Amino acid sequence: MIGAVAIVVILVVVIPVLVLMSSAILAGVLGWLLKAEVDERYEGTEYLELAS
Predict the structure, then answer these.
(1) Residue pair 38/49 in contact by the 8 Å Cβ criterion
(2) What letter does residue 52 receive in the DSSP assignment?
(3) Side-chain-side CA neighbours of residue 35 (13 Å)
(4) How does pLDDT run across 4-47, given as a tens digit for each residue?
(5) How many Å apart are CA 20 and CA 37, to the nearest integer?
């Protein structure tokens, strides 16, 4: 019985939290990389000043 409860807790609580947290980390890294690329591409133009 305790094994079944543990499996249900893992499926309902642990896995969704891990998926959401890993998605948030991935989104943060992707945003940081894309911003760095765009800042480099538009350096010296008015687009970079507008984005700040």
Answers:
(1) no
(2) -
(3) 8
(4) 999 999 999 999 999 999 999 999 999 999 988 888 888 888 88
(5) 26
